[in-house]
UniProtKB/TrEMBL annotation:
Its EC number is 7.6.2.1. Pfam families: Cation_ATPase, PhoLip_ATPase_C. One of its GO terms (biological process) is phospholipid translocation. It comes from Hucho hucho. PROSITE patterns: ATPASE_E1_E2. PANTHER family: PHOSPHOLIPID-TRANSPORTING ATPASE IM-RELATED, PROBABLE PHOSPHOLIPID-TRANSPORTING ATPASE. GO terms for cellular component: plasma membrane; trans-Golgi network. The active site is at D286 (4-aspartylphosphate intermediate). Keywords: ATP-binding, Magnesium, Membrane, Metal-binding, Nucleotide-binding, Translocase, Transmembrane, Transmembrane helix, Transport. One of its GO terms (molecular function) is ATP binding. The keyword Plastid does not apply. This is Phospholipid-transporting ATPase. Its cofactor is Mg(2+).
Length: 1046
């Protein structure tokens, strides 16, 4: 890319140059559809007023066009190369950083200074669109560009299984050293007491000949370290990554997670966290655009104390609005949006009657925004809005006769009831998550100066003139009603400004906007100063409907014992309404606690009151020896405001908040900032031994997405920043259920089975050498030939275990959805842990013991058909290796729940390949070609053609697999505790039917890690739960704990 060509202005003429030669301060020319070569300050363009359009897909993934605008003083330079070459402005700006949405700088030119921000910058990686040309000055180049600054090292997320594997590998290495020490000591003793008698015809090496048997033991130690090194799973990490990659492709290829309306498939943006998806206990979700559609529709409003938007019949009763309800006729306005619907005709009548407050209301909506209009045809307006809220409000003003038509850096043009009106734009007081409001200062054609402000009602009300008290009370009642219907609300206000006061304020604004350090703080103070003494106009209510399938998804995830916390910036009433809409809050809940304290002491008192209420309910029911670690008998919800949350997150209160919130079934945090979202996630992540998942769709969710163990981005209406910061992405919240309960649970189940079998076969294969050491004088002689040792893990057993790790499933996807409680073993980390590792190593050691001693014991009795003994060591090795391959193949066959054609080919094909290679290595052909590498000619043929040998192999195979089958038989009987169950990871969830347990939706139970074992018996159409050895039986459904009120 650095070799691409561009034009730059070194003198009075344009010259061609490569990207790699661009330097800071160069003036360069960009043409339509060309990439931006560096971070440049836009000077001029082919569009009026220095506008240009860019696509930032390479930066933030957003494909919608964005507008950038040059300073008025530089836009006059146009395409005049001579003027551009003489441009001698000086830019002082912030140092290089990775903040794509922020730039602070000042241009000094012709004895004046001009503030610079991100809206005047074109960043490297952008593409110029719909603009013939533009010129710019290079501010950052090469590694200093924001794109390259974002290419730094990202935080690597590791799963709990990764950490466990690292620990287990260290344990195995320690075990290997212990085995080496034991065998070395054995060699030293053997050489001292027995080996001397063989020294006559088995000459010792020089050091040992000098009675240094310790040195012999030292050499033996390292020899056995080399021989037993196959016990250390060097290939484990490679196999794990291959399996994870396969699981990621399964997610990417899942058609049931493909959103056809936007052509958006699910995407696994990482391959390292798949099994962690099967262990999630906490989900932290944004509301707008995540649970809701983020498609805003202007629904209701309050203007000067009167509410608009409801429809009434002839008797004055409110009528429910449906698709059949008549819409307002906007034919009086030729510029109206035909898609816009509104049902209350009284608002149109008020507009036509030219009521001043109504006109001022919609004038504010058409002026106070950052929307850019695009007029494709005459009267065919398309608004490019940074947020769906702004687009909805400007569209509403357009339909009610106040049409936003165009803007320049200094003017805004409206069509007010068909008449063009130009307003001089004096200042824009930007919105941010801290201010939660936006203002514009304009001068109307009559010369009057006004400040128009819109923002969160609590913020606006704090800045109203005291004379607005009565109107504020009435508007507050309307806002409460709107929020109760789940609508997003904003308050609107204005202020008349004095010319002299504004002039003095503008001077200070110019000074504050041209400083480099603490510019934002200085501007915020000035904004705060002028946004006081406001006059209330009214409020807007915008509808944001729930996405399809959200209530059902939340209900299913709740049954899987996943706690869902909603973190939203909306007001309390709106958040509560959404909570009821998606069934997180219900009328039959015992109590909904609202934390709204304004001080640390108030918040502490309220939290402890909640905690004591839940604790009383809890301790009355269960004794101290209950098998439940935390049992929440009744259902509670906790709702906490942003200002209260700020106090609750103080170090002295955060543990109280955490403990109290975890006792409640539903937690909703409203009016929270992006930083508070991340703090809540970090609090749970740090203090709870639980996997956390954060899901959101906007830039304000990025911090919590990065903080959680797993981050999920929704590709919605607010751009792609959340997706780019996430580990997994898709288009609809409902796909989260499939991601966790199907892909996540399968990935965890497969990975655990894979690890169990992998360690088992390695121990079974390697420890045969340990037992053989006691019969070969601890001489470090191997049982198998070198070719078998080389090929065992690479050829004979690698593919079957990979097939298990990729395709195995204990239940199908339908049952995974139908029985959410199947998700519990992953949350409790039951399928593979240190205890399961101990069991698999124990099983591997037992298998190795039987693999060696059964053939060894039978060797004295086994004879050929002609009566001669099978007494050579190589024949013994063939019997053991053949038994080993058959045993591990049968074992993986027994451990596989779901057989595919790939499993059959890999398992039985590996067996066939083993015998083909075995006979080939012992054949005359290879011996004649490489006699030194394949000296054991005919051994396999002579050995495996004997019936007695196959009888020994069959006896060894049966003896090795029978303990596992016996354990499976034990699992079909009630056990006193899960810890008493035996066998592999399947032990904690037995057979498919035994795992299909259900928890009642109105009971919330957290089980201890030592949860009693369970199984299900199906008899006479009833489902019985064997819990702690005591069967509890109900028709179809059963529950743990007690119901509310009972």
């Amino acid at each position: 890319m650095n070799l691409q060509q561009l034009f730059f202005v070194p003198s009075k003429f344009l010259q061609n140059e490569k990207w790699m030669n661009v330097r800071v301060g160069d003036i360069i020319k960009l043409e339509n559809n060309h990439f931006v070569a560096a971070d440049i300050l836009l000077l001029s363009s082919s569009e009026p007023y220095g506008l240009c359009y860019i696509e930032t897909a390479e930066l933030d993934g957003e494909t919608n066009l964005k507008v950038r605008q040059a300073l008025t003083v530089t836009s006059d330079l146009g395409a005049d190369v001579a003027k551009l070459a003489d441009f001698n402005g000086e830019v002082i700006c912030e140092p290089p950083n990775n903040k794509l949405d922020k730039f602070t700088g000042t241009l000094y030119w012709r004895d004046n200074k001009y503030p610079l921000d991100n809206e005047k910058m074109l960043l490297r990686g952008c593409v110029l669109r719909n603009t013939d040309w533009c010129f710019g000055m290079v501010i950052f180049a090469g590694l200093q560009t924001k794109l390259m600054q974002n290419c730094g090292r990202t935080k690597f997320k590791r799963t709990s299984i990764d950490k466990l594997m690292n620990t287990l590998v260290l344990w195995i290495f320690g075990f290997l050293v212990c085995m080496g020490v034991i065998l070395a000591i054995g060699n030293t003793i053997w050489e001292q007491k027995v080996g001397r008698t063989f020294s006559v015809y088995l000459l010792w090496d020089e050091p040992i000949r000098n009675n240094n048997v310790v040195f012999s033991g030292f050499l033996t130690f390292w020899s056995y370290i080399i021989i037993l090194n196959t016990m250390v799973p060097i290939s484990l990490y490679v196999s794990v990554e291959v399996i994870r990659l396969g699981h990621s492709y399964f997610i990417n290829w899942d058609r049931k997670m493909y959103y056809i309306q936007k052509d958006t498939p699910a995407e696994a943006r990482t391959t390292t966290l798949n099994e962690e998806l099967g262990q999630v206990e906490f989900i932290f979700s944004d509301k707008t655009g995540t649970l809701t559609q983020n498609i805003m529709v202007f629904n209701k409003c309050s203007i000067n104390g009167k509410s608009y938007g409801d429809v009434y019949d002839e008797f004055g009763h409110k009528v429910e609005i449906t698709e059949r309800t008549d819409c307002v006729d906007f034919s009086f306005n030729p510029l109206s949006d035909r898609k816009f619907k509104f049902h209350d005709s009284s608002l149109v009548e008020a507009i036509k009657m030219e009521e001043p407050s109504v006109q001022e209301f919609f004038r504010l909506l058409s002026l106070c925004h950052t929307v850019m209009p695009e007029e494709k045809n005459e009267g065919d307006l398309v608004y490019q809005a940074q947020s769906p809220d702004e687009g909805a409000l400007v569209t509403a003003a357009r339909n009610f006769g106040f049409v936003f038509r165009s803007r320049t850096p200094e003017t805004v043009t409206l069509y007010e009831m068909g008449i063009a009106v130009n307003y001089q734009l004096l200042a824009i007081l930007d919105f941010n998550n801290v201010r939660k409001r936006m203002s514009v200062i304009v001068r109307n054609p009559a010369g009057h100066i006004k400040l128009y402000c819109k923002g969160a009602d609590t913020i606006i009300f704090d800045r109203l003139d005291p004379s607005n008290q009565v109107l504020m009370n009435t508007t507050s009642e309307h806002l409460y009603e709107f929020a109760g219907e789940g609508l997003r609300t904003l308050a609107l206000a204005y202020k008349d400004l004095d010319e002299n006061v504004l002039e003095e304020w503008m001077k200070r604004l110019l000074n504050a906007s041209t400083v480099i350090e603490n510019r934002e703080e200085g501007l915020a103070d000035l904004y705060e100063e002028i946004e006081t003494g406001l006059m209330l106009l009214g409020a807007t209510a915008v509808e944001d409907k729930l996405q399809e399938g959200v209530p059902e998804t939340i209900a299913c995830l709740t049954l899987a014992n996943i706690k869902i916390w909603v973190l939203t910036g909306d007001k309390l009433e709106t958040a509560m309404n959404i909570g009821y809409s998606c069934n997180m809050l219900r009328d039959d809940m015992n109590e909904v606690f609202i934390i709204s304290g304004h001080s640390v002491s108030e918040v502490q008192q309220q939290l402890r009151l909640v905690s004591s209420t839940v604790d009383v309910e809890k301790t009355d029911e269960f004794s101290e020896d209950s098998v439940f670690e935390e049992t929440i008998i009744a259902e509670y919800a906790l709702i906490i405001n942003g200002h209260s949350l700020a106090h609750a997150l103080e170090p002295e209160l955060e543990q109280v908040l955490l403990e109290t919130a975890c006792l409640c079934k539903t937690v909703i945090c409203c009016r929270v900032t992006p930083m508070q979202k991340a703090q809540v996630v970090e609090l749970v992540k740090t203090n709870k031994m639980a996997v956390t998942l954060a899901i959101g769709d906007g830039a304000n969710d990025v911090s919590m997405i990065k903080t959680a163990h797993i981050g999920v981005g929704i590709s919605g209406q607010e751009g792609m920043q959340a997706v780019l910061a996430s580990d997994y992405s898709f288009a609809q919240f409902r796909y989260l259920q499939r991601l966790l309960l199907v892909h996540g649970r399968w990935s965890y189940f497969r990975m655990c089975n894979f690890l169990f079998y992998f360690f088992y076969k390695n121990f079974a294969f390697t420890l045969v050498h340990f037992w053989f050491g006691f019969f070969c004088g601890f001489s470090a002689q191997t049982v198998y030939d070198q070719w078998f040792i080389t090929l065992f893990n690479i050829v004979y057993t690698s593919l079957p275990v990979l097939a298990m790790g990729l395709f195995d499933q204990d239940v199908n996807e339908a049952n995974s959805h139908r029985y959410p409680s199947l998700y519990r073993p992953g949350q409790l980390n039951l399928l593979f842990n240190k205890r399961q590792f101990f069991l698999c190593t124990l099983q591997g050691m037992g298998t190795s013991f039987l693999l060696f001693f059964i053939p060894y014991g039978a060797f004295c009795l086994v004879v050929r058909d002609d009566g001669s003994h099978i007494s050579d060591q190589q024949a013994f090795a063939v019997i053991i290796s053949t038994s080993l391959v058959i045993v591990v193949s049968v074992q993986i066959g027994l451990d596989t729940y779901y057989w595919t054609a790939v499993n059959h080919v890999f398992v039985w094909g590996s067996l066939a390949v083993y015998f083909a290679i075995l006979f080939a290595m012992h054949s005359d052909g290879l011996f004649s070609i490489l006699p030194s590498h394949f000296p054991f000619i005919g051994t396999a043929r002579n050995c495996l053609t004997q019936k007695s040998v196959w009888l020994v192999i069959m006896l060894t195979t049966v003896a090795c697999v029978m303990p596992g089958l016996a354990c499976r038989l034990c699992r079909s009987r009630p056990r006193s505790r899960t810890s008493d169950s035996c066998g592999g990871p399947g032990a904690v969830h037995a057979d498919t039917v035994a795992r299909c347990t259900m928890f009642s939706s109105d009971t919330l139970v957290r089980l201890a890690s030592g949860l009693s074992g369970h199984c299900v018996k199906k008899q006479c159409g009833l489902v019985g739960l064997c819990f702690g050895g005591l069967p509890m039986r109900q028709d179809c459904n059963y529950q743990l704990g007690r119901k509310k009120g009972g």
